[in-house]
Amino acid sequence: MKAKVFTILPEVFPGFLGVSLTGKALSEGKWSLDIVNIRDYAFDKYGSVDDTPSGGGAGMVMRADVLGEALAQNYKTGKLINMSPRGVPLTQELVHQLAKEDELNIICSRFEGIDERVLEEYGAIDVSIGDYILTGGEQAAMIMLDAIIRLLPDVLGNSASIQDESFEGGLLEYPQYTRPQEWKGRTIPEVLTSGHHQKINDWRKAQSEFITESRRPDLWKKYLALK
Ligand code: SAH
Predict the structure, then answer these.
(1) Range of the domain at 86
(2) Strand pairing of 186-187 and 182-183?
(3) If you measure from the C-alpha of residue 202 to the centroid of ligand 1, how many angstroms do you get, rounded to a whole number?
């Protein structure tokens, strides 16, 4: 998968995507990262990319002409995503869909956002990583890419662990334990050391259901409807 990121902070990439599983996958060519510095497309000698909002108000807005030029020269094919708190929520389902794409172009903005016209002109899809406000799209883009890259073929050592994860079956994950058998007087639930696979699966399913019902009524409702 080819990722192309449009940003005014090229120095923050690849960041944590350059280490561990995603970093190994990057060096093995399972995905590639191309960075476009939006500032290189500014029209003045100061490299200005933003201006005051039309209609007044706080903050600055990324100019349509500067970002437009960066896109005109670098956006060729594939999906174009704009990281935005107004976007469609990034869910594991959407992550699976995006992992099937050959090419992802991702716009990261700062300030108050981007002049709407450039998003319309290029048909960008807004994607949000959650109901909170970050200082910039770079963090959001990295989180989205991290979630996508781990689903690419041969990136995770054990693909069974993907299916077991929270959200994959509509439920949150059950609690996990490992050695030592006893820690600060707390022991591992007996069933997990029984070697009885059916009982272990039943226990895990019950725990997943309990945790989902108590923590995420929204997911629980969807799960019950599909069951
Ligand atoms: N004024 C905007 C928020 C701007 S935050 C609003 O009220 O909607 C600055 C930038 O950070 C955004 O343009 C976006 O690129 C990024 N960002 C902030 N929160 C985000 C989120 N939850 N998901 C994705 N991107 C986000």
Answers:
(1) 2-149
(2) antiparallel
(3) 41
pLDDT digits (tens, 9 = 90+) for 15-45: 999 999 999 999 999 999 999 999 999 999 9
pLDDT higher than 90, residue 132: yes
Å from CA of 64 to ligand 1 middle? 17
Binding site membership of 109 for ligand 1 (Cβ less than 6 Å)? yes
133 and 192 share a domain? Answer: no
Cβ count within 10 A of residue 110: 20
| Spacing, Cα 86 to ligand 1 middle (Å) | 8
- What is the count of structural domains for the chain? 2
99, 144 Cβ separation under 8 angstroms: no
CATH number where 180 lies = 1.10.1270.20
Q: In what order do the strands lie in the sheet with 32-37?
A: 32-37, 2-7, 103-107, 79-89, 125-128
85 alpha carbon – ligand 1 mean position (Å): 5
Question: What is the atom index within ligand 1 of the atom nearest the CA of 130?
Answer: 22
